[in-house]
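Lay summary. Proteins are chains of building blocks that fold into shapes, and those shapes determine what they do. In this project we predict the shape from the chain. Here is one chain we studied, written as its sequence of building blocks.
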Amino acid sequence: MLVLEHPELPLHNNPAELGARTMVLRRNISYGTQTQDGTQAWDTFMSLVATTRKLGISFFEYVRDRITRTENIESLAQIIRNKTASNLFGWSWQTE
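And here is the predicted shape, written in a compact code that computers can read:
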């Protein structure tokens, strides 16, 4: 019983469900994409929007940084690694 051993874990997946619902609503409002390439581009950008939002980074600043290749902002993968290095799972996962 992983949840009982680690009480800081949520008992639901509401954030993931809400994220998926938001993407579906946006897709429906825009009438979807017309090609497979368009669908892949849409999914990539929506994933970037969600990830930068969760990390507290401006999506537009991140994209501008990547397009101009100034690299003032670390890669999202490195930012995630840095944030998780200090607290892998939560207090109940710590070993003594």
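What the prediction tells us: Residues 9-93 form one domain.
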